[in-house]
Design brief:
The chain is α/β, with parallel strands linked by helices. The chain is built from eight helices and twelve strands.
């Protein structure tokens, strides 16, 4: 067989590197979505249960948005899964700029049709917003959905009639957040949702209902863990999963988040 002329690359070398395996299935037959975040997947039997709603909560500055961006970027870049970031807090260009600090080029993924950003104006939130968002994700064939943040959704709860003697928080916010999350729940498991939520102190959510409605709860907090790490991550619950229950040091490095062993 004739050799390639000197200086020319073979077709084999020009071929794209194949994508990694998109999901794994555990011993019980549960399909798992690999986050690709170093050290995290091992804590949840290989990844999030596909099609579930996961609440990622924590106080300000605990890297929840970075976690969400890394989940989407890895899904698109490593596993070819289309993702969508819905933001109510930061503008899209700000998110992309933040991602570039870790080498995550979302503009390139947008051109490939693997990522979509949706800027949801807080004043436009209404009772049907959860259903509309779910329908949009299904229509766009989204596999990974991140909402930043559920706290902003709660703050912008539409005004509804309330019963005499009941407070707005008791009725409007709780009922709306419950409905919003429930509307995102897809029976066919077509996409997995990560809901980011700001907290104060030791609370698990600002709305006090999402931690019960969601299928999983990942909590990040500032913690005195010794050494170089000031943030700790703990999985408070994860349905269909024998998850690790320890607090693990969370590191922010040049390539994003990394979860360490205790």
């Amino acid at each position: 067989m004739a050799k390639n002329p000197k200086g020319k690359k073979s077709k084999k070398r020009l071929m794209k590197k194949p994508l990694k395996k998109t999901t794994i299935t555990d011993a019980e037959g549960t399909e798992r979505v690999i986050t690709g975040i170093p050290g995290f997947d091992a804590l949840v039997e290989g990844g999030f249960p596909r099609g579930k709603l996961i609440l990622l909560s924590g106080t300000p500055g605990t890297c929840k948005t970075i976690f969400g961006l890394q989940f989407l970027y890895n899904g698109a870049k490593l596993y070819g899964e289309k993702g969508m970031m819905v933001t109510l807090e930061e503008n899209v260009e700000g998110l992309k700029s933040q991602a570039l600090r870790f080498g995550w080029d979302f503009d390139a993924l947008e051109r490939e049709g693997l990522i979509e950003f949706v800027r949801l104006v807080p004043g436009s939130i209404k009772m049907m917003s959860g259903q509309e968002l779910s329908a949009l994700a299904q229509r766009k064939k989204i596999k990974r959905l991140v909402l930043d943040s559920l706290s902003s959704v709660a703050i912008n709860t539409p005004m509804l009639p309330i019963e005499a003697g009941s407070t707005i928080k008791d009725i409007n916010v709780l009922r709306f957040v419950y409905t919003f999350i429930s509307d995102l729940r897809i029976l066919d498991g077509s996409f997995t949702t990560l809901l980011l939520s700001q907290t104060q102190g030791e609370e698990l959510s600002r709305d006090s209902v999402s931690e019960f409605v969601c299928d999983g709860l990942v909590y990040i907090k500032y913690a005195s863990l010794g050494g170089d790490y000031s943030r700790g991550l703990v999985i408070r619950k994860m349905r269909e999963t024998a998850h690790n229950e320890d607090i693990h040091p969370l590191e922010i490095g040049e390539k994003g988040i990394k979860i360490h062993k205790m």
